[in-house]
């Protein structure tokens, strides 16, 4: 088929393009297809994100440049405060393996200070000279030891940090070494079977932080510990209490450092069996045990070992001689190890382990002693003092044994002198001098450890200096005035005052403040404070002005208003005209926040008045109002009282004093009357059956405002009530009181008088009679023990069957009898009773027994394939009779599946047709139908077979081409060919919708072309789908058409998206464009 578009010559039209056309056509290209529209939007979003990222990077670069400039400029304009060294990192104990490839040890040290500290190191108290010994070097504060040797480098290390302020010493750090085993071969150990043996580890010198294990024959086969074999973590030895033939082999002791993870292995020790017989039984002998005295630091985990040789293998038991073993203790390694975590002082004492077998027993006893390392209670802090003053520092620490104290100054021991006293952690230096400045350290230590506390002592020495000079002070006539003189100086200066070259002898306080009593105009003038010490002197001039005192008048002083009214409080000030005055309103001594009061308050202020308007007054606005006026000379507060009349507040809690079957005596307390006397009280009650709170009759009636009790009358017997009281005055009715506790009226002493209503029945299962009724509300039960009597009999019989239902809330009774057939009529009535007797019965009604579940399946079941995913099922109901279906259930499953694997779908009522959806195409299904009702399900119909239609075509219509002339669009496409497993195409569906709206117009056609007429004004989206028996196929690419009269547009789509898009617009001349797809 030839299309007019194919005759356009694209090359002749390209020359007409300019830059504006390119942009316009690119925009049209994006708008004409949904896919390209999303692609263009995606590209625009990516460009925006890239621009944002570039802006963020530029901002970050600018910030970094500014920070670097500040780091350069700040030191030029700011003088940092100097301070002594403070450790950030102190050296830690270290363990070094001599077998390490790297023969270098690093001891870390870092401190802060201004000036920046320098570092030096001490080994066992001797200064290290990195310049004189090439094996030592310093990088920052870290000491590096090259070619470390145990003979030379073993010991305790301390780091010294020093600057111009002083120096400090770090804590001790112990450097230890671990060596390799002696390489000499070890002799074989030969024992009899059944004999005990100890294989010696004999480790090289090492630190305590190691773990022992034994290799059996070769790695990675390790000896497993049990009741017969034990590895001591104290000695490293391997203990075998009773040797067996399986123990014969080669044993190697492995030592692992837990800090460095370094491992060393001993030479192998062969274990062989003697051939001269088997060892007989013998009593235990403890070979591995904890020391006679065990010292342990508080808080660590203690492990006590005890293991014995013997035949049979001994069992180990533990006990504490004075008291019980701590509950937190655990037994490890077949009870050979007693482990006590987080050891405390109360865990100290004598412990005993006992080894026993059938031949006897033996025991070992030792003492566990817990010590504590020193811990700070109080430490010293940086201090600044004047020269000549006294320094008193105290540091306190706990520990067991009790710690002792010593002091260092600039890293050197501090000794008692004429001015220096040191007693039990207290340091006193009298008459401080400039030479006493520096870094001080208090060391608390016992034989298990030491802790350091450091502080800087700075001795101040400066001439007097005032931060503000001169000072202007305004006072009022008749008031006392204080003129302060607080210079910064060290030592403290001598102070003197003068006025106009005359010494002032008016009251001088201890803090050098000059106090003028009952000031007057004659006291005005310049006052000079002179401060002087050995380093210099300075003067402070205070200009004193004395003004007339301010007077404040607030009107009205006391006012009463009613809720909802308005009032104005007027505040007038008389003051010196040279001074500015400011106002602050207070309510009950708290600043009044008008913004939070919902527009009730408004200020009206002039230079000497401040009025407060209060609109639509509420009860909470009552109180004491204050007008606070202030000038630079003085401040005055005037107060007024506002009383607000309103409805009364809630009365006090209601108490039920006495209760009968129909009355309740109540009492309460008066609430606030809000300045209007209470006239009446209203008593209200609420019960579970009432509609909220209801006013009840009272005795007396009415209840006047001076009463605090009344009796509620005409209540219902045996009903639970709550009571509350509401007060009323001349203004209105207030809020109710808190409800009373719930109380129940007493029984009426009579049986119930009201019978159940709306007795009915039906439904239920086969052979059941279901009877229901409306329950009797509590107010008509008249007493305790209320229940129902259900009476029934089959029609035509005489005797009634009666059943008691004891629950007052029950509404249903079911009776079952296999003998009566479905839909049997019964005469039914329901009565009531309580503890006082039986009440009336309801009218007799006829109730039928249940009809039972359906007995027959639906008939004439048929199924029709609607599409590849839908099947319509129809049937006829069973023959009329008992067991009528209320609804139906359709079961469907694939031909190759079991019925249990299938699905079910139910009708909403007793319809006889159902549409099955969501099925697979070109698939055979089995379908059956059954009826059901409240009694159960009936039998299912015989399954029928039906196949869904083949799937709809998967390919969309392709190569869409269209011509638009005004509002008419001629649309054509390539026909869709169905695959072998797809339904044949029987036509096409063209969907047309206006952009931005969800509703679509549908046109069907058997051909692959159609002419559409579009309304003017708007953009329309067109898509095409193939139609087959299996349903609708995939949608074509969307066509976007803009309606505009007087122009002709031509275009095409290929199957995979856009092909070359050719557009022509007819106006005064022919303009053609050829757009190459992106």
Automatic annotation (TrEMBL):
<keyword id="KW-0325">Glycoprotein</keyword>
<feature type="domain" description="Ig-like">
    <location>
        <begin position="549"/>
        <end position="643"/>
    </location>
</feature>
<dbReference type="InterPro" id="IPR007110">
    <property type="entry name" value="Ig-like_dom"/>
</dbReference>
<feature type="domain" description="Ig-like">
    <location>
        <begin position="284"/>
        <end position="369"/>
    </location>
</feature>
<feature type="domain" description="Fibronectin type-III">
    <location>
        <begin position="956"/>
        <end position="1046"/>
    </location>
</feature>
<dbReference type="GO" id="GO:0098552">
    <property type="term" value="C:side of membrane"/>
</dbReference>
<dbReference type="GO" id="GO:0007411">
    <property type="term" value="P:axon guidance"/>
</dbReference>
<feature type="domain" description="Ig-like">
    <location>
        <begin position="464"/>
        <end position="541"/>
    </location>
</feature>
<dbReference type="GO" id="GO:0030424">
    <property type="term" value="C:axon"/>
</dbReference>
<keyword id="KW-1015">Disulfide bond</keyword>
<dbReference type="GO" id="GO:0098632">
    <property type="term" value="F:cell-cell adhesion mediator activity"/>
</dbReference>
<dbReference type="Pfam" id="PF13927">
    <property type="entry name" value="Ig_3"/>
</dbReference>
<dbReference type="InterPro" id="IPR036179">
    <property type="entry name" value="Ig-like_dom_sf"/>
</dbReference>
<feature type="domain" description="Ig-like">
    <location>
        <begin position="85"/>
        <end position="170"/>
    </location>
</feature>
<dbReference type="Pfam" id="PF00041">
    <property type="entry name" value="fn3"/>
</dbReference>
<protein>
    <recommendedName>
        <fullName>Contactin-5</fullName>
    </recommendedName>
</protein>
<dbReference type="Pfam" id="PF07679">
    <property type="entry name" value="I-set"/>
</dbReference>
<feature type="domain" description="Fibronectin type-III">
    <location>
        <begin position="857"/>
        <end position="951"/>
    </location>
</feature>
<comment type="similarity">
    <text>Belongs to the immunoglobulin superfamily. Contactin family.</text>
</comment>
<dbReference type="InterPro" id="IPR003599">
    <property type="entry name" value="Ig_sub"/>
</dbReference>
<keyword id="KW-0130">Cell adhesion</keyword>
<keyword id="KW-0677">Repeat</keyword>
<keyword id="KW-0472">Membrane</keyword>
<keyword id="KW-0393">Immunoglobulin domain</keyword>
<keyword id="KW-1133">Transmembrane helix</keyword>
<feature type="domain" description="Fibronectin type-III">
    <location>
        <begin position="755"/>
        <end position="852"/>
    </location>
</feature>
<dbReference type="GO" id="GO:0007420">
    <property type="term" value="P:brain development"/>
</dbReference>
<dbReference type="InterPro" id="IPR036116">
    <property type="entry name" value="FN3_sf"/>
</dbReference>
<dbReference type="InterPro" id="IPR013098">
    <property type="entry name" value="Ig_I-set"/>
</dbReference>
<keyword id="KW-1003">Cell membrane</keyword>
<dbReference type="InterPro" id="IPR013783">
    <property type="entry name" value="Ig-like_fold"/>
</dbReference>
<keyword id="KW-0449">Lipoprotein</keyword>
<dbReference type="InterPro" id="IPR003598">
    <property type="entry name" value="Ig_sub2"/>
</dbReference>
<feature type="transmembrane region" description="Helical">
    <location>
        <begin position="39"/>
        <end position="72"/>
    </location>
</feature>
<keyword id="KW-0336">GPI-anchor</keyword>
<keyword id="KW-0732">Signal</keyword>
<dbReference type="GO" id="GO:0005886">
    <property type="term" value="C:plasma membrane"/>
</dbReference>
<feature type="domain" description="Fibronectin type-III">
    <location>
        <begin position="650"/>
        <end position="748"/>
    </location>
</feature>
<feature type="domain" description="Ig-like">
    <location>
        <begin position="374"/>
        <end position="458"/>
    </location>
</feature>
<dbReference type="InterPro" id="IPR003961">
    <property type="entry name" value="FN3_dom"/>
</dbReference>
<feature type="domain" description="Ig-like">
    <location>
        <begin position="191"/>
        <end position="266"/>
    </location>
</feature>
<keyword id="KW-0812">Transmembrane</keyword>
